[in-house]
Amino acid sequence: MSTVINARHLTKQYGAVRALDDASFSIETGRIVGLIGRNGAGKTTALKSILGLTQCGGELRVLDLDPHRQRDALMQQVCFIADTAVLPRWLRVDRAVEFMAGVHPRFQRARAEEFLAHTTIRSSSRIGDLSKGMVTQLHLALILAIDARLLVLDEPTLGLDLLYRRQFYDTLLNDYFDHDRTILLTTHQVEEVENLLTDVLFIDQGRIVLDSPVEDIATRFAQLQVAPANLAAARALKPLHERELMGRYVLLFENRERAALEPLGEVGTPSVADLFVAKVQGAAS
């Protein structure tokens, strides 16, 4: 398995704010990685550095290229969908497809037209007349028709209703993803994508606080729902995080044997969203 992104000790300063603070991570081929963080945590700066849009301290290689100095070569193998699908409102759908076919050497026109044929988008429609969901579908068709090795998605379904969001991710898995391609995405709707992810990267205040395959979460972390009578004993085992839920307490543990937790209450595996809250609040305390 080859490495698509290799970042070591990335730093980026904006005035008094350190957007990236000694951030190190790597992403392998054929993975779907969720870059998860609060607003201002450093996600956008990390994505910009990966795409060659900003230069950081440290070492960064993307597809074995320097993204800042070799950006032209890199962007022939990388696709990007931002949180706002910006397409000219005056442009017709068929002209957008024609334009992409003329400017990108790896664009597959037939693939884009096949995708659009399964939507309600008319080729003669102007983009300004399409709904937000339709514009996102068009943007997705144009991007997924490019034979790229890395797809970067920054809040790609922001503002879409549940139906369009589900269709977006179904299309992503069924019509695009394979073992030769890699997807890096950011989203605030963690619960909707956690079943798609193979890996998670949690970032907070510019630092990577968790870099883990999703399959390792069940063995590394445990969530204990405990009655008040057993709370003191559970706290003695030094939980990573604690919250109260309808009169019971939910404690999250890292690298703690489940056999030690089971006598105290109901043991399960935390969701990615719950784990993110625990790691971020734990890092802040």
Structural write-up:
The chain has 285 residues and is an alpha/beta fold. 31% of the residues lie in helices and 29% in strands. It has 11 helices and 13 strands. The chain has a 6-stranded mixed beta sheet with strand order 5-6-7-3-8-9, sandwiched between helices. It has a 4-stranded antiparallel beta sheet with strand order 11-12-10-13. The chain is globular and about 65 Å long.
Distance between the termini: 37 Å
Q: From the 3D structure, determine the CATH topology of the largest domain.
A: Rossmann fold
| Bulk shape | globular
Integer tally of domains = 2
In total, how many beta strands? Answer: 13
Low-confidence stretches: none
The CATH architecture assignment of the largest domain turns out to be: 3-Layer(aba) Sandwich
CATH class of the largest domain: Alpha Beta
Order of helices and strands: EEEHEHEHHHEHEHEEHEHEEHEH
What class do helices, strands and sheet pairing give? Answer: alpha/beta
